[in-house]
Design a protein that fits this description.
It is an enzyme of class 2 (transferase). Its main location: cytoplasm. By secondary structure, this protein is an alpha/beta fold. It is built from 8 helices and 5 strands. Bound molecules: P1-(adenosine-5'-P5-(uridine-5')pentaphosphate and magnesium ion.
Length: 196
């Protein structure tokens, strides 16, 4: 009998598109465990004794992407620690290094169900992140300088990953420019279409 592999959904989209917000809804409705790669990196950055703290902070502030060995191992550990078998992996894989690293280590340990992709304009995403910063997010990248860099990285490095999955017909594309409730109504369709 084939062993059941843990199932994953990758959640991608521009900075501020609403990945985290929607993952919270999905997790409640469908019972997936929400693992935000960014949150895992921010946690690792704060961990006393971490050898990666400074490197992570510098990458985040500059909107650059942390080497996959670090991110993938944090994701893998969080999956094992949860003891669960269905995961939303939020904000990963964001570039070719991430994709290749995941495929090397995780692709035969997991089953990729599909990729949720939130489409949202640069202006709207920037406003959302700046609003969150003004409201006291405490994130060192919710400022206009970092946001410019985050967006460039998104366009240059992450869009090709979405194209890669699109060619495999694995992308469920969502208009993220409407209210969170309206976005979620569309998100649900991606899951129910798969019988989830
Ligand atoms: N908001 C959400 N939905 C809304 C809606 N429909 N209408 C109006 N407002 C909406 O939302 C952002 C803000 O918008 C919030 O205030 C929310 O209330 C509002 P959120 O749900 O947080 O959006 P999200 O897409 O999760 O935005 P986030 O800023 O988290 O996206 P990023 O992709 O930029 O951040 P992440 O944490 O994933 O990564 C940060 C950095 O970590 C990266 O730049 C990179 O340096 C590093 N990183 C890696 O190196 N590798 C990784 O694998 C992952 C991250
Ligand atoms: Mg997020």
């Amino acid at each position: 009998i084939a062993k059941m592999l843990p199932e994953v959904v990758f959640v991608l989209g521009a900075p501020g598109a609403g990945k985290g917000t929607q993952c919270t809804f999905i997790s409640k409705e469908f019972g997936f465990i929400h693992l935000s790669a960014g949150d895992l990196l921010r946690e690792e950055r704060q961990r006393p004794g971490s050898e990666y703290g400074e490197m992570i902070e510098e990458k985040i502030r500059n909107g650059e992407i942390v080497p996959v060995e670090v991110t993938c191992s944090l994701i893998h550990k969080a999956m094992e620690k949860s003891g669960k078998s269905r995961f939303l992996i939020d904000g990963f894989p964001r570039n070719k290094d991430n994709l290749e690293g995941w495929e090397r280590v995780m692709s035969d340990k997991t089953k990729l169900l599909f990729v949720l992709f939130f489409e949202c304009s640069r202006d709207l995403c920037t406003d959302r992140c700046l609003g969150r910063g003004a409201a006291g997010s405490g994130r060192s990248d919710d400022n206009i300088e970092s946001l410019k860099k985050r967006f460039n990285t998104y366009l240059n490095d992450t869009m090709p990953i979405i194209d890669h999955y699109d060619k495999q017909d694995l992308v469920c594309r969502i208009n993220a420019e409407v209210s969170p409730q309206e976005v979620f109504a569309d998100v649900k369709k991606c899951f129910t279409a798969l019988g989830i």
